Amino acid sequence: MPTPDAPGIPDAPAVEQLAAATRRFVRDVVLPIERRIAGSVHDLDPAERAELIAAAKAAGVYAPQLPTAYGGAGLDTRGQAVVFAEAGYTLLGPLATGCAAPDEGNGLLLERVATAAQRERWLAPLATGDIRTCFAMTEPAPGAGSDPRALQTRATRVAGGWSIDGRKWMITGARGAAVAIVMARTSGEPGDAGGATMFLVETDNPGMRIERDVETMDAGFYGGHAEIVFDGCLVGEADVLGEVDRGFEYAQVRLAPARLTHCMRWLGLSRHCHDLALAHATERQAFGSTLADLGLAQQLIADNEIDLAAARAVIAQAAASVDDGVDAANASSIAKVFVSEAVGRVADRSVQLAGARGLTGETLLSRYWREMRAFRVYDGPSETHRWAIAKRAVSRHRRAVAGAGA
Amino acid sequence: MPTPDAPGIPDAPAVEQLAAATRRFVRDVVLPIERRIAGSVHDLDPAERAELIAAAKAAGVYAPQLPTAYGGAGLDTRGQAVVFAEAGYTLLGPLATGCAAPDEGNGLLLERVATAAQRERWLAPLATGDIRTCFAMTEPAPGAGSDPRALQTRATRVAGGWSIDGRKWMITGARGAAVAIVMARTSGEPGDAGGATMFLVETDNPGMRIERDVETMDAGFYGGHAEIVFDGCLVGEADVLGEVDRGFEYAQVRLAPARLTHCMRWLGLSRHCHDLALAHATERQAFGSTLADLGLAQQLIADNEIDLAAARAVIAQAAASVDDGVDAANASSIAKVFVSEAVGRVADRSVQLAGARGLTGETLLSRYWREMRAFRVYDGPSETHRWAIAKRAVSRHRRAVAGAGA
Amino acid sequence: MPTPDAPGIPDAPAVEQLAAATRRFVRDVVLPIERRIAGSVHDLDPAERAELIAAAKAAGVYAPQLPTAYGGAGLDTRGQAVVFAEAGYTLLGPLATGCAAPDEGNGLLLERVATAAQRERWLAPLATGDIRTCFAMTEPAPGAGSDPRALQTRATRVAGGWSIDGRKWMITGARGAAVAIVMARTSGEPGDAGGATMFLVETDNPGMRIERDVETMDAGFYGGHAEIVFDGCLVGEADVLGEVDRGFEYAQVRLAPARLTHCMRWLGLSRHCHDLALAHATERQAFGSTLADLGLAQQLIADNEIDLAAARAVIAQAAASVDDGVDAANASSIAKVFVSEAVGRVADRSVQLAGARGLTGETLLSRYWREMRAFRVYDGPSETHRWAIAKRAVSRHRRAVAGAGA
Amino acid sequence: MPTPDAPGIPDAPAVEQLAAATRRFVRDVVLPIERRIAGSVHDLDPAERAELIAAAKAAGVYAPQLPTAYGGAGLDTRGQAVVFAEAGYTLLGPLATGCAAPDEGNGLLLERVATAAQRERWLAPLATGDIRTCFAMTEPAPGAGSDPRALQTRATRVAGGWSIDGRKWMITGARGAAVAIVMARTSGEPGDAGGATMFLVETDNPGMRIERDVETMDAGFYGGHAEIVFDGCLVGEADVLGEVDRGFEYAQVRLAPARLTHCMRWLGLSRHCHDLALAHATERQAFGSTLADLGLAQQLIADNEIDLAAARAVIAQAAASVDDGVDAANASSIAKVFVSEAVGRVADRSVQLAGARGLTGETLLSRYWREMRAFRVYDGPSETHRWAIAKRAVSRHRRAVAGAGA
């Protein structure tokens, strides 16, 4: 029977079974740890991470997005939408179940673009959780940020390979990663639309060093966000990922699905916020009533329900677009803006519903609220996506008019 | 091939084919008339209505929601979501293609609740467009409005049937209808949760009279909105629709899908608003640029795109809930609030984009903008739905807590 | 004693006395007529307009903004903020009390820029209400709209004066006006920042004709909005208002205060909307309670109160800026955006609170709601003002940084 | 000359001079320290606090709200609105200039309610900055929170005075304070509208102990927020503040102005956020342009400007209401809701404008953004104020109707 979580998706029963197992695993196994560390994922003990992963494998809920050949469940994007939201009910959940950023997106990229040898070397241990990876694209000003074409890090040809020089910033998960996928300019100048290449750089390469951990308002990404310097960093021809000068193109392969899977996980976390708020509102008495029965609290609760339902629906449609290859970039761009803003509103209202308790470190709410703020900025800020969405709409309209006039 | 309009729905190719035919019919046949009458559907000439219906039948796009036995395409709710949005691109479209309110919802109600004889008498000619119908539930203050239980109109048993007394208000399409489905109290007092019964009343019944046409800001419903008086209005036992005292229950049968089909049609109209705004913004020059290329206009365009995509997604999910019978009332309630507000925002931004022209009667925009305002009020105002949504969320939470504690 | 309506303004007692007299006049004399004509000011009978003006004079509340030499009360902008909001409680109020657009702003312009002879000829009868005037600046696309520099209407020198050619659009109050202040290009090309001149054109000039009345969603401006053609329209040197080529500069003299006085009047009308909504909400029963006591209605009521208080405060501050000549253009620009949007929200919530009744022509609400929509477009749409506000903020910041670094 | 910061207020030149001196002091002396401690006021070294206070006194900007007899400038609320916003440009500023919460409000309360002896003992050293104080009202659930009448802490009469028992929570500045103003129930039961009394409790009273520092998302209040236990805490009759059983009444004396001075300080901090965002936006390049010149960034900048202007205006009007004693409680309630939400929006947009940098600890922005979130909760959450505002509006309307009908 189709369930409320998976209406109309192919293979709904299997997906729903996996979602239910993930839900149980997250609530029974992960949540107690999340509470103990107060949501500070970035400094989880590595041994504890390994135990969590082992438990997830034992529960049959590890890396569901990966092909069965790599031990996953081969979920398509529609199915991921249902399951990842269960994993994302806590910050630790995706890490435990092998679908956390940036590894999840890097796995997809390697699957699509890497050579067999590269997949053997990096994707196989990534799939088992034995290594972690990072994606090194963004740079401090005036380099690549919202505008990737500002890319300044350079790779120049040397005998037998390439030498990379430059500085990367806000590289999530770099601390502790085994390999970095590094975007560097192999032709053209900062501002040019092309000329980028991806490289696989082992993190013990002597030409690469983590200069510092950037202190940020979020704490939900394992390994945090690092600033990295590449200084005459030598890599071989075999370390080029895909073809030279096609890096921006591959980035799109990764980004459209990756921002959608972010949406899925944050949807889960915002459901958790809402549940925490409901728990408070149904217990707290005020003005001779239960808080949850007061009209202005009901408005907050209803608006949360509406935002959660709409976010789920928008993700489901974008997932279908990605699976069907129809308008995928635009659909995931729209989903990113809508969902990042909707889950931010849900977290904000939940804090408000929880009153003073929501401001303290005594519930997970204030941690989650801060965590979600960042999502309106990374993976393209709302403003950049809106700009792109408007330009696409105008182009589409002009083509339609031209077509009608022909 | 799945298309952007119908991702993931069963029988997508057939639905998409019907949607495309409806789109062509609406743009080629209906739109020119809509422009001529400036969107004032309520005073379309009956002969012209008949011609439009004939043309829609000829184009194979008439009454797609009805069972094939009644000449329709037997679309489920998912399919209606795609096709009705095409019909709703204009105000006249649903009238022309036999899916306008209130006939569309009344047809569903008759199909589900009426006896074979009643279906023969009323549903058959409704299905062909030969008659129109109305649904007489709401009353002037202090009667049934947002709160249906305030129902005051009474039906009392008389020999061989019932006598109805009371006053109804804002009865859409009553002028010109052949039959009214009348909600009257058969037991209990105003404020009671039960005790309502539905009656089929021929509009030439001498005990029923249309007292006046209520002047409203909208003009998109054929026949307008009437105030009706029932004064010793005698009907037979055979005119009871369903069972006595189950009227509120049947109203829910009608209302959950009916408010969702409203959403579908208004989604279509808001797309039209957006297209009109894009047409203006891509032609108008200001500040040395095309309006559509200015940043603050791009914000309006992008927000329209996002709202339209989200509204479509929310409708699709609610349609799946209705078809699958899972959480249908709540899903359609959420959809009603979200979509009525989203399409209102789209219409408002479209007026803003069109500048002074959007304020005039020279485009259809100001007509559409007014039209959509009413949707946040009828079929339950946003506030009533939010209240119900919050109460359901709190109940669900309490059940979950009780279940977990058991 | 200072009152809530005039805290901290100079000469508060006199202002408050005038405000109270205006309030009584509007509620006792004007409101009954407003109800009878359902707010359709544009087609008020001229004789009735004359009677209203006579009554306002008798009540001592006519043209309070004019210098005492012209029979007014010589109110500064701070004082106007208090009194005009009382006049604007109805649409007819400003017309009756001689402070309606466009005459109010045109009076100010004449007072500041006109020669003694021009003032004698036009300002004197304007001040008594014996004539009306209009301000002919905006043009149909691709002419002057949000961007005044797109001005296309041309005045060319001829023997003894000028010949004007061009087309104006949305000229409020033109129908029935005695004189038009016409903006025409006397040098440069459309798009140039300068080169405009103002002319005083008698409306019976054979070179000027009203081509049509533009049908719009609002009905609150006496004389409506006309499209006007100038075809070899000859005027003398004495009909130049101010100096040649300084028209854009004079337009600013008029526009900054004029958009602020619009804010004042609309604030009054939005208070009326709120009062109508409160009247409904305190009478209507639903769900076993008075509507006004339900939580979600309370949210609407509170948000109205907040918006009304904020709009009043923003107007008061901008009025002080205009009177003190400190940052007046920016302050009135900010006020225009904030107030036009705030009063729009108030009107919208009031319609929502009034439910189905708010959608009908049976209260003034739906008329007022439509009326206010236009204010976000005319006098510069919100987007144009935001653009200008942002550019000023950035310039100010850059100057401050440069100053600090010097 | 009146300046943009103080239009229309009495004694504007003196106020503006003090505001300018405060601005210089905050930017030259305070800001460097604020940067060094990254805005974490709660753990500033006490010696450094003393140095800052000495410097503020030397600059003539200390405790401007206090009567001149206590060394202050005797500013009325209008004047405070201008000066406190300058102090509040940083989190440390109010602490340095003697106008921080809770001491600022406690000083006002002591000035109004305390006996001469109490003033001598507590107000005099508070006025010089030699001691700090706290206000112990709120309690953990199910005690006094948004609803103060839920007060549970009890004071019972004993020989020579009172014995206090109970638990307080989120008591700002308790750590390091010399005295606590404690609200305890002296009659009635939790939920009753009266029966509270204020006591002055020395913090070294053995019956009072700070149980813990509550970890919260904000860090801008010196001494943080403590949980305190009163366990047979004995105080004398001379320690009753004002009269027995009038505590709720005195709380209003303190709360209406105190929430308004909060607004003033947060307005200052939100101006700082906006300045930090402008600094980023005018330096950062993206998409071939300066960020500040891109349309969607301009929208954020303009909306900040509008919110800042509106917040300033709303504060100014409420200050006039407080000074004039006209509708003060309602005006400060409205101001609290509007300003707490407006400054929250400004901080949020500023973070968005600053992109990834705004998420880091490298600017003060993310600290300020978190800081402001709490203001929508304390001093009465937005929902409680809206409820009260709506109820007052409905009462006012009913009185007006009754009056008109009489």
UniProtKB/TrEMBL annotation, chains A, B, C, D:
Transmembrane segments: none annotated. Residues 134-232 form the Acyl-CoA oxidase/dehydrogenase middle domain. Keywords: FAD, Flavoprotein, Oxidoreductase. Residues 16-130 form the Acyl-CoA dehydrogenase/oxidase N-terminal domain. Its EC number is 1.3.8.3. SUPFAM superfamilies: Acyl-CoA dehydrogenase C-terminal domain-like, Acyl-CoA dehydrogenase NM domain-like. Residues 245-393 form the Acyl-CoA dehydrogenase/oxidase C-terminal domain. This is (R)-benzylsuccinyl-CoA dehydrogenase. It comes from Microbacterium terrae.
